Amino acid sequence: DAKTTQPNSMESNEEEPVHLPCNHSTISGTDYIHWYRQLPSQGPEYVIHGLTSNVNNRMASLAIAEDRKSSTLILHRATLRDAAVYYCIPPGGSQGNLIFGKGTKLSVKP
Amino acid sequence: EAGVAQSPRYKIIEKRQSVAFWCNPISGHATLYWYQQILGQGPKLLIQFQNNGVVDDSQLPKDRFSAERLKGVDSTLKIQPAKLEDSAVYLCASSSREGWNYGYTFGSGTRLTVV
After folding, report:
1. pLDDT tens, residue by residue, A17-49
2. A96 vs B44: CB contact, 8 Å cut-off?
3. Strand duo B19-24 + B10-13: pairing
4. Could you say which of A85, A96, A102 has the minimum Cβ distance to residue B100?
5. Do A97 and B93 count as a contact with CB atoms less than 8 A apart?
6. What is the three-class DSSP state of A43?
7. Residue B107 to residues B9, B11, B17, B69, B89: CA-CA distances in angstroms?
């Protein structure tokens, strides 16, 4: 299984953009990068996923490096409700499971 | 659509007692997962079902944990007997197809405290 590296924590100010990095240097060419987040006292929720090109949805953008060894989740305007733990998910196990690391705890200051 | 339902929301038991958790996945989702999340850590997969069959239970402590998914819909996870280290949030998730490229939907979890 591929391994990922994320900072333990990050801080942001409300209404400013946030860039959450993830290194996944051992990823293979056909593996998607998934991001989930977990709000306090809730289960994880899907944020975004991508393979090679940058991806956008209503929640966030995902910028994937050309060599695919890293990616960055971009929240364009952080709100207090974006305070959560963000997980960059490596390719799943033999059965295609989500394998969670410790993630990055994002704090948003008003 | 309705989300993944889990109950109870909280449970406190004494060590060596037994406990059961229930999960109702999103309608039509064939794949169901149980995860254990210890405080300060990411969720850890315990077991994966495809319909009513077990696909992966390699991380399930089978001496005390058991799970079933009758009729390929609802699932129960049981711990008997519980240990202090089983204190955690137990999360259920479902997806429409097997494989992690298909989005998972998680329930809010059951917080278990073993005293």
Report:
1. 999 999 988 777 777 889 999 999 999 999 998
2. no
3. unpaired
4. A96
5. no
6. coil
7. 10, 16, 25, 16, 11
